[in-house]
Amino acid sequence: MTFRFDHQRVLVTGAGKGIGRQIAHTLALSGATVVALSRSADDLARLREEIPCETIACDLADADQARAAAGRAGPVDLLVNNAGISVPQPFLETTADAFDRTMAVNVRAALIVSQIVVRDWIARRHPGAIVNLSSQASRAALADHASYCASKGALDALTRVMALELGPHGIRVNTLNPTVTLTPMGEMAWSDPAKSAPMLAKIPLGRFARPEDIADAVAFLLSDRAAMISGTSVPVDGGFLAT
Hints:
With about 240 residues, this protein is of the alpha/beta class. It has one domain: Rossmann fold (3-Layer(aba) Sandwich). It has helices at about 20-30, 40-50, 65-70, 95-125, 145-165, 185-190, 195-200, 210-220; strands at about 10-15, 35-40, 55, 80, 130-135, 170-180, 235. It has a 7-stranded parallel β-sheet with strand order 3-2-1-4-5-6-7, with helices on both faces. α1 (about 20-30) crosses α8 (about 210-220), α3 (about 65-70) runs parallel beside α4 and α4 runs parallel beside α5 (about 145-165). The longest helix has 29 residues, at about 95-125.
């Protein structure tokens, strides 16, 4: 099934690398005008060589930068809050700085960017859609990831509140909750069979996700084919959470 986004502007945060980069590619190939936001100007320059897109460099950990970047994006029709970080630390060694930065990027930035975008939608009476990129880690504990798991659980909860309050304006909000995804960074992190085998054993489909798996699910949730789906968390995990 092909989803088309002709004549629609889509803001994608964290678009410089990994899943966000694939989301930007998929949406651009589907006719969207992509507004790509990332911390690295170099990553954005390379993305511009690959697809037609507008780019904004911004550190979403800084609340003021997040607000300014969302404003610079101008009127958009759809939003993907993909930006996220992980700072692996054992629970007893988790630092306040790492926790605060993780929450700032993974949760607070989604709040701030969505507020700027949605205020414009309400003013224009535009029934937009938002997809927030969460993780199976919001529902299944992952050792050495206290900050990350907490942030994704918070993002799921934030999404439900957004769906509740914004639904009367015709605005849909959902999360996607992927399993391990084989981005270039993911391939390096999970290349050791001693590490990957126990995780793969918990996935009934027997494989990790590909970036395309996530991007296609994002496109579906943004599309009119998902017109009655809001306030939910959609696992893209090969059945991991079913076990």
